[in-house]
Specification:
The complex is a heterodimer of chains A (about 260) and B (about 270). Chain A has about 260 residues and is mainly α. Chain A contains ten helices and no strands. The chains are: A mainly alpha (about 260), B alpha/beta (about 270).
């Protein structure tokens, strides 16, 4: 009995990996059996070979490095400014009322539609890629921060007042810590859109400035389909790693979020 | 500390109309006495002690808090009392010790000093070894002890308790009631204890104030002259049974009224 349950448990753990492996295997088999041309659909083995080649000649690291720097620059800019404005909005009704109108007008606007303007103003260099991703990520961060501060449990505020907290202590010792889970949720959303916007900006930027997005579009234009797939694989893996890293950081910053109350 | 409530009313503004929660409540809560405020849910009993604690404003009436030993100088509301809340309101991001030391931290007591006092109090409520746990890692009864310690550390003469044991299971509740009786018998603070449990009110109180369904008024006050120290065996005694019957009959009509009111759909903040 014990052995079978242990096996079952391992099986359950391994199941996701098994499905991926089976999918790749079926893909390889299908491409070979049907003799599909590599420009339409390269076999996984061919993609792996391409990945290996890109790693060895350093081009993968170069493009990935550029993309990562842009992602973190855009994210940092959006994170810092978004948290700051969200907190100020939480503390000043006047500011909240003013900012609310701007956010309501600008948040639903697809930020990709700003790309032509930003290219006119900033060119196709680093500034444009960082600004477009930061502008996009800014909104979820500011909205979540403000919501977190506004939705602080009134009972906790009353308790702190009862225990002698003054206005400043109320902000620093109760309101801000209570808003941290909401701020972290905003940062998660912000990171997601930052990755999307950086890659999109690299694809549209045109000139040879590198990055995974540039690699994707330039390989696609010359039908180097293996390279396109290799870039997609890298993007998926790195994206997943960033999200996991962020979840790990959330556990470190706000461990109480992950403890049940019962 | 004497707490003298005179003609206190409270109206909750709900858009155009107002809901009368407390209607001209007057009572003298005696110094160093344990008073239980008993009433059906929504009778404004929580509102009353929050007003006494300076955490809500009365719409009308006056409250005087004064030391009977000294001259008739009324103190500002909230300065002599501390609250223990029904839903505890522990700060989930703070460890047990930082929750307990919160009041001292707000006063600017340096860390070594406030930790020393918090540790002693944590030990006295039986939580030694849990100083660095967070509330989310504790059971209901343990969290209740943290909330109690957090209030006791300020050593204020008045303890306001808003149905503090309502959410506990039966066994834990008994232990906490005994703990509170011990604290009262040692410190003789002035305790105002809100509850809707008749047995609890009689077991703990020197006096039971029975309130009416909304709007909250004081229906009757019953002195509980059972000897202290008390223990749970008291519940089986004849005197206890007689008191229970008396209070039960007072409160039954009010509970029925409150239920009818709820059925007809007039709800408000409790």
């Amino acid at each position: 009995m014990k052995v079978t349950t242990a096996v079952a448990r391992i099986g359950e753990r391994a199941l996701p990996a098994v499905t991926i492996f089976a999918f790749v295997l079926a893909w390889e088999f299908w491409v070979r059996a049907r003799g599909i041309a590599p420009i339409y659909l390269p076999a996984p083995s061919a993609i792996a070979v391409e990945l290996y080649r890109m790693t060895m000649d350093g081009s993968l690291l170069y493009h990935l490095g550029l993309t990562l720097i842009r992602i973190f620059a855009g994210f940092a800019l959006a994170g810092i400014s978004g948290i700051l404005l969200g907190m100020l909005m939480g503390m000043s009704h006047t500011l909240a009322r003013i900012a609310d109108v701007w956010i309501a007008a600008l948040y639903p606007l697809p930020k990709i539609s700003l790309i032509p303007l930003l290219i006119i103003w900033l060119g196709t260099g680093e500034a444009y890629k960082i600004v477009i991703s930061a502008v996009t990520a800014f909104f979820p961060v500011v909205i979540s921060t403000y919501a977190g501060i506004r939705q602080v449990d009134r009972g906790l505020l009353k308790t702190a007042v009862d225990l002698g907290a003054n206005q400043r202590q109320l902000q620093t010792k109760v309101v801000i810590p209570a808003a941290i889970p909401s701020i972290l949720a905003g940062l998660q959303l912000g990171m997601g859109v930052t990755i999307i916007l950086v890659v999109a900006a690299e694809m549209i930027g045109g000139s040879a400035q590198g990055g995974i997005g540039y690699l994707l579009i330039s390989s696609g234009q010359v039908m180097q389909t293996e390279k396109v797939f290799a870039s997609l694989v890298v993007l998926a893996v790195v994206g997943a790693m960033i999200i996991k890293l962020q979840q790990w950081a959330d556990h470190k910053i706000a461990p109480w979020m992950f403890q049940s109350w019962r | 500390m004497d707490v003298v409530v005179s003609q206190v009313s409270k109206t909750w503004e709900t858009g155009t109309s107002g809901v009368l929660a407390l209607d001209q409540v007057s009572h003298r809560f005696g110094s160093r006495r344990f008073t239980c405020i008993l009433g059906p849910s929504g009778c404004g009993k929580s509102t009353l002690i929050q007003i006494i604690g300076g955490l809500e404003k009365a719409s009308a009436g006056e409250i005087h808090v004064s030391d009977p030993a000294r001259a008739e100088t009324s103190r500002a509301l909230g300065t002599d009392s501390v609250m223990v809340w029904q839903n505890l309101n522990l700060f989930p991001w703070r460890s047990v010790i930082d929750n307990v030391a919160f009041g001292l931290e707000m006063r600017g007591v340096p860390r070594p000093d406030r930790y020393r006092r918090a540790r002693a109090l944590i030990a006295s409520v039986g939580l030694r070894g849990f100083e660095d746990h967070r509330p989310g890692q504790l059971s209901g009864g343990m969290r209740q002890r943290v909330a109690l310690a957090r209030a006791l550390i300020l050593d204020r003469p008045i303890l306001l308790m808003d149905e503090p044991f309502a959410a506990l299971d039966a066994q834990t509740k008994i232990v906490m009631q005994e703990e509170l009786m011990r604290i009262f018998e040692q410190t003789h603070k002035t305790i105002l204890f809100v509850t809707h449990a008749i047995e609890e009110a009689i077991l703990l109180g020197d006096e039971v104030v029975v309130m009416t369904a909304r709007p909250g008024r004081i229906k009757d006050t019953i002195a509980i002259n059972l000897p202290r120290p008390r223990s749970l065996e008291l519940v089986a005694s004849k005197e206890f049974g007689a008191l229970f019957d008396r209070v039960f009959h007072l409160i039954r009509d009010e509970v029925m009224k409150a239920m009818q009111e709820q059925d007809s759909g007039t709800a408000g903040p409790s």
